[in-house]
Amino acid sequence: MPVPCGTGCGKNAALKRPKTGDALCKECFFWAFETEIHFTITKGELFKRGDSVAVAASGGKDSTVLAHTLKTLNERYDYGLNLMLLSIDEGITGYRDDSLETVKQNRDDYEMPLKILSYKDLYGWTMDEIVAQIGRKNNCTFCGVFRRQALDRGAALLGVKCIATGHNADDIAETVLMNVLRGDIARLKRCTAITTGSEGTIPRVKPLKYTYEKEIVMYAHYKKLVYFSTECVFAPNAYRGHARALLKDLEKIRPTCIMDIIYSGETMSIKEEVTLPSQRICTRCKFVSSQEVCKACVLLEGLNKGLPKLGIGKSSKAKKMLEEYNARQNTLEQVIDDLNDTNIKKKSGKKRNGLTDKCNSKTCCSGNCNSTQNNMEDNSKINSLLDEYSLKETDKPVQQLNDVSDDEEGCSSSCGRLGGLGVGF
Amino acid sequence: MPALKINVHFGGGAELLFDKIKKREVELPAVDKYLPECEKKGWTIRELLVWIKENLLRERPELFLQGESVRPGILVLINDTDWELYGELDYELQPSDTITFISTLHGG
């Protein structure tokens, strides 16, 4: 027996809205869905007339629906926005290369310019190469940290006023839950903000903050929007998977719990005596950081030095690793001196210092160092990094080497879902 | 009782668990023969899920099913309408119905 649309429009309802429990027909649902996002945008003053806005586009359901809705609203309510798409190519074969095709489809469908930035161009490494170094554990940290910064770089290149991301209500609720579970007060405080970023940085806005995942998927389905859905080939992020599964189970019993968790996160106040890390500029790359050197730079330094675990875990651990590395380099220097400086400079122009090459010299340290190609000029870089770390010893960070990022430590909304789901409840 | 022909669609990444096939036409046998213990005359979504698990689901059933229902986060549509408006598991299948399963759990 068909249920009539709750608005009294005379049509049959197509879905039950999780947020309100209303049964609506397709047309009335589209209207409600779009209008709510319009209210979120106007109430939160997300955009100003004439702004250029980059939509962070992954080709997935959220960013596809976001791009579609922003285009629709921009025309309907005459926001006067100049919309464009910004995509990051992490270099994951069989995952991102396919999804980028979807983004190109979005570009054509929505007539928006598209900019694609790759990890390879920005950092000299693809995720495929990073995973070959670090293995499948922790690789989400690299991906998440690099993506966050890559979006900032892309936005700067495009000269936009802000970046709109596709984080939906379920994502935000999940992040609140995660931050409670981890006791991460700094992130708990800012993860519900509809606009993040401060002076000197390009703000990020979340127009879908109050939009349920179910409605996004139903909207895309009824509008026949083309989006890409698969799991990241490297995904497993077990902890987030558990949080997500818990949330979905709760939502099934009581759909308003998503809004309620967001509300709790928004209204929770932090005790004054809790010290929060302050935001500053990374001394190396000049992008936002909560530390002297930002996490992206530390991770990259680790990769380029053959210490891929650098930056995973505590900063004191990173410092120790660098010290050991430096000690090894000193020994190496002597060996190199002895070898009379012949074939050292051979490959010094190469970006990566022969990470995969094993040490050839039998006289050199235990054999687990990276080859003699680790040239001298790099040593000054290591030393400067070490200095930077020594400096930091005094200011005891509250957190680990965390960037001032909102919610993207590791994969959050764009991947890593299914890995943890395998465990179930 | 004659066989029941229906369409089963998978989307949003759910198709990855079903040989990547998005649209299928399936023929269900008489329910009292297939599941004698359920003592029903017609197929409901509840029995359909059992049949799908045993006949179509290729991998990681826990990503699709939970208990006797679908895993929360998998949307079910009956003839393009939210199953929540049709009694969910208790909906009785009619000839040439289209049942759609869309995953919201897959990222992009």
UniProtKB/TrEMBL annotation, chain A:
SUPFAM superfamilies: Adenine nucleotide alpha hydrolases-like. Residues 53-229 form the tRNA(Ile)-lysidine/2-thiocytidine synthase N-terminal domain. Keywords: Cytoplasm, RNA-binding, Transferase, tRNA processing, tRNA-binding. It is an enzyme of class 2 (transferase). Its main location: cytoplasm. GO terms for cellular component: cytosolic tRNA wobble base thiouridylase complex; mitochondrion. CDD domains: CTU1-like. It comes from the Eukaryota. Residues 282-310 form the Cytoplasmic tRNA 2-thiolation protein 1 C-terminal domain. InterPro entries: CTU1-like_ATP-bd (IPR056369), CTU1_C (IPR032442), Ncs6/Tuc1/Ctu1 (IPR000541), Rossmann-like_a/b/a_fold (IPR014729), TilS/TtcA_N (IPR011063), UPF0021_CS (IPR020554). One of its GO terms (biological process) is protein urmylation. One of its GO terms (molecular function) is nucleotidyltransferase activity. Pathway: tRNA modification; 5-methoxycarbonylmethyl-2-thiouridine-tRNA biosynthesis. The keyword tRNA processing applies. It is found in: Cytoplasm. The keyword Transferase applies. Its EC number is 2.7.7.-. Signal peptide: none annotated. Pfam families: ATP_bind_3 (PF01171), zn-ribbon_14 (PF16503). Belongs to the TtcA family. CTU1/NCS6/ATPBD3 subfamily. Plays a central role in 2-thiolation of mcm(5)S(2)U at tRNA wobble positions of tRNA(Lys), tRNA(Glu) and tRNA(Gln). Directly binds tRNAs and probably acts by catalyzing adenylation of tRNAs, an intermediate required for 2-thiolation. It is unclear whether it acts as a sulfurtransferase that transfers sulfur from thiocarboxylated URM1 onto the uridine of tRNAs at wobble position. This is Cytoplasmic tRNA 2-thiolation protein 1. It comes from Manduca sexta (Tobacco hawkmoth).
TrEMBL record, chain B:
It holds the Pfam family Urm1. One of its GO terms (biological process) is protein urmylation. It comes from the Eukaryota. C-terminal thiocarboxylation occurs in 2 steps, it is first acyl-adenylated (-COAMP) via the hesA/moeB/thiF part of the MOCS3/UBA4 homolog, then thiocarboxylated (-COSH) via the rhodanese domain of the MOCS3/UBA4 homolog. Pathway: tRNA modification; 5-methoxycarbonylmethyl-2-thiouridine-tRNA biosynthesis. GO terms for cellular component: cytosol. It is found in: Cytoplasm. Belongs to the URM1 family. This is Ubiquitin-related modifier 1 homolog. It comes from Manduca sexta (Tobacco hawkmoth).
